[in-house]
């Protein structure tokens, strides 16, 4: 009888361990998807999602490799300059009616840039809403003026977006912003 009980316990443990491994692999696959699914816990009692990383792809427009490349570029740039960059794709601006205001408020809410330098830049875009905004901190806008940001959007990013190349548009726009910001 004791041997049968031990066998039952052993089989129970093996089945549970296998089940845990399967669940972990499913979670890993889900976390490696190109986007992030938002739920009510992702919002902090307002219209802004929680800041998770440098590239926050809430619209699932990038694949994992693209997110990795953009993140590396941003982190390397921050290490060299202390300037901070966030990229956000989002399908909704909540109760806001003005996309530009939403992008500025999101950047301020997330505190992109160092407080004493105000050296942040946030690229917020929406494939669904067909909108994009580059928000700069006060320290940043001395170099990357509104005119420069609008030119990069109109001449580099939007032409790629019109062809469905969201990664290429953001990648090329980011490269141009960094080149001008140095």
TrEMBL record:
Q: Pfam families, alphabetically?
A: TPM_phosphatase
- Any idea what this protein is called? TPM domain-containing protein
The TPM domain sits at 55-179
